[in-house]
Amino acid sequence: MRIRAVAARQKGLLAAGVLVGLAGTAAMLLQPVLLGRLIANVSAGESATGPVVGIALLFVADAVLATLNVYLIGLAGENMVLDMRTTLTGRLLRSRLEAFRRLEHGDVMNRTLADTSLARLALSSSVAQMVTSAFTVVGCVVAMAWIDWRLLLAALACLGLAAGAGLLLAGAVRRAATCNREDTSAYGSGLLRVLGALTTVKASRAEDREGEHLAELAGNARRSGIRVTRLSAMFLPAINVGTQLSLAVVITWGIARTATGTLQLADLTAFVMYLFYLVSPLVLFFMGLGEVQQGRAAIARVVELADLEQEEDDGRTAIAGHPRAGAPAVEFRDVGFRYEGAATPAVDGVSFTLPATGVTAVVGPSGAGKSTVFQLVERFMAPDQGSVRLLGQDAGDVSLAQWRSRIALVEQDCPLMRGTLRENLVYACPDADDEQVRDAVRAAHLEDVVAALPDGLDTRLGEAGVGLSGGQRQRLAVARALLTRPSVLLLDEATSQLDSDSERALRETVTSLGDRCQVITVAHRMSTAMSADHILVMEGGRLRAQGPHARLMDDDELYRRLADQQLSPVALAG
Ligand SMILES: Nc1ncnc2c1ncn2[C@@H]1O[C@H](COP(=O)(O)OP(=O)(O)OP(=O)(O)O)[C@@H](O)[C@H]1O
């Protein structure tokens, strides 16, 4: 994301806002001139009507223009936040899964919510405020120089000290604010991590420990927040001391000079009025500078998130491609893949060919690389060596969206989206009609579940599918997958969530699906592997054997051991 481009898209509104602000300032700067004339007229016994009407008009113009200025700048700021958030959302949704998984969710939330708001302040209101304030300061200084340059030098000497202190403070605020953003983000990440695993926390009786850790993180954020407040709080007093000093000098010296007749009372009044006008913009200028400094830290964090690595094909470069008739559903040709930072590859020199239809079971001990094979089929990441082909086509020949439209994935923990059961079912296929939904529900053996829910298909499911058991969630995910009529169905079998009736029902569904497409299932139960047409046996990232159950029982020692462990009378009784 180019922050300059975000600001440039709002340059019309920003320029209008600043111009209106400058006009308002000009209206304000004219007030002392008319007031001086009013005093002069009254002193000379002349009519006061003209200056009084003029001052009233300037008051009204000042108020109207100031309001319009805040509105226009605020509008530009909100547009910028929208721009940044939609860009970030798009980049997050199209990010490479591996890069995304390295992020802390709390930190992502902080960057998209709080940091974009701070960046908005820095890019819109603070900058606009600094421009109008600087204009006011310059205007006041010019007017004061015109009235009496010696008084001005005396006033500026006092205010200059305060301004110098203000500049030093602005730098310190920026450093403290960066630290505070990091601390707040660490607290947010910690909180999300704990809330995401609340059942584990409770079951481990770790509430106190986690509570203390979170309190420590919150304490860090408080400490750095206080540092920001302390430094920011020193702005006003620094400016105030300078103002009071300059007022004392100007009034004492000014009165002395009016007594000697070298300065008119009307001029001294106008000068003091300009001095008052000067103070508030000076404060605002330095506050704006502080906000810009804080905003720079936030902008850097927003840009860093926007730089998140993207999938190699972001869906906009679709290449038309047609699968070859009768081509194998999935082919791995000497595929190797190593996770970043991992010592050994998760998949190493794997080759297999699976036909257009049938059921394939992938078995192997934990960490063998089964899920990684699935992720490579989905193109969640690209292999480091070899190639993955789908329906006879190479990954380079098919856009990511087309590729994934031919695959359906049923995950082990089946996350559900918020909304009704029906909305969840048609998530990957929003145009499905009632009959297709009914067929999918029947095929996934979900009819009883739907009938038992208060509003049937229109029952609202809570966050993460509250209201459905793990087994029901997996069958719902199967129904959702069926609606897309995939060529390849990837199913990561639930390890423990299905009772034996549901398990049998799901197995029947999977077997019948094998007639229409290639079903590849990570089989945690040997019963699933036994009923498959083809079995891939993985170990340590390598494909050590493949074939049907009977042959593997004869030929492969690991497979036989896995089968014996699960199918022994003790295991079956358990
Ligand atoms: N995101 C990751 N980053 C680094 N290493 C990973 C990552 N995911 C998996 N691995 C490693 O890659 C190897 C294969 O993991 P994979 O999840 O594919 O195994 P699996 O056979 O599916 O295991 P399980 O049956 O326990 O789910 C393991 O050594 C694992 O530690």
TrEMBL record:
Keyword Transmembrane on this protein? yes
Which InterPro entries does the UniProt entry name for this protein?
A: AAA+_ATPase (IPR003593), ABC1_TM_dom (IPR011527), ABC1_TM_sf (IPR036640), ABC_transporter-like_ATP-bd (IPR003439), ABC_transporter-like_CS (IPR017871), P-loop_NTPase (IPR027417), Type_1_exporter (IPR039421)
Kindly provide the name given to this protein in its UniProt entry: ABC transporter ATP-binding protein
State the Pfam families in the record: ABC_membrane, ABC_tran
Keywords annotated in UniProt: ATP-binding, Cell inner membrane, Cell membrane, Membrane, Nucleotide-binding, Transmembrane, Transmembrane helix, Transport
Domain ABC transmembrane type-1: residue ranges: 15-294
Residue ranges crossing the lipid bilayer per the database entry = 12-34, 54-76, 127-147, 153-173, 231-256, 268-289
Q: Where is the ABC transporter domain?
A: 330-565
Its localization reads: Cell inner membrane
Q: What is the lineage of its organism?
A: Bacteria, Bacillati, Actinomycetota, Actinomycetes, Geodermatophilales
Query: Which GO cellular component terms are attached?
Result: plasma membrane
Instruction: Please tell me the species this chain comes from.
Output: Goekera deserti
One GO molecular function term of this record is: ABC-type oligopeptide transporter activity
**Membrane topology designation:** Multi-pass membrane protein
SMART domains from the UniProt entry: AAA
Q: Which family does it belong to?
A: Belongs to the ABC transporter superfamily. Siderophore-Fe(3+) uptake transporter (SIUT) (TC 3.A.1.21) family.
